[in-house]
Give the backbone structure.
Amino acid sequence: MKRGCFVTGTDTGVGKSFAAVALLHALRRDGGPAVGMKPVASGSVRTPQGWRNEDALALQAASAPRPDYLLVNPYALPEPTAPQIASALAGVRVELPTLLAAHSALAGMAGGRVVVEGVGGWLAPLADGLEQSELVRAIDLPVVLVVGLKLGCLNHARLTARAITADGCRLAGWIGNAVEPPGPHSDAYLGLLRAALPAPCLGLLPYAPGADPADLALNLSAD
């Protein structure tokens, strides 16, 4: 983790971006540099500086030193849909060499400590013929899985953990993110997740709509 990680989720909408920003703040607790990256982002708005994505901007703002936006987010796609569809609508071809060049530049300015946020769940492709696992293997980063704590999360977490390992990548740990108010069996679910997943829990993010991820970074371990 001291050299960065790749953040994926059990699904879309599980708070992956929030957790990635919180993890970035956690990495920076030792006073060292750390920067964020969102290689491909769907759902961007046009600004005078070009297309910008909210999640990528949050990663950029949490970075130290603060990198150029085009390094943080090489592909900002307008439509808020799957990258394969969004890139086709934008007439853009997402290519691995471009992503690797941006990551290399970010790693150079942050001593290798780059928090890279993926798209959707683990098996959501970055582009036609380009899986997220291919990028992860190329940049040689461990994977952190964000588990949205809700009904069904045990199944989704176990399936994702198996897929990460099957793709030849290393699951370094997982973060539990309460995407809804805790239910009567929330503690039991956490116990099942801890027992079932082949990696340690790096922390739990409570249900806190509107919270600043920097304030919740203390809930996470970056070791």
Remarks:
- The chain has a mean pLDDT of 95.
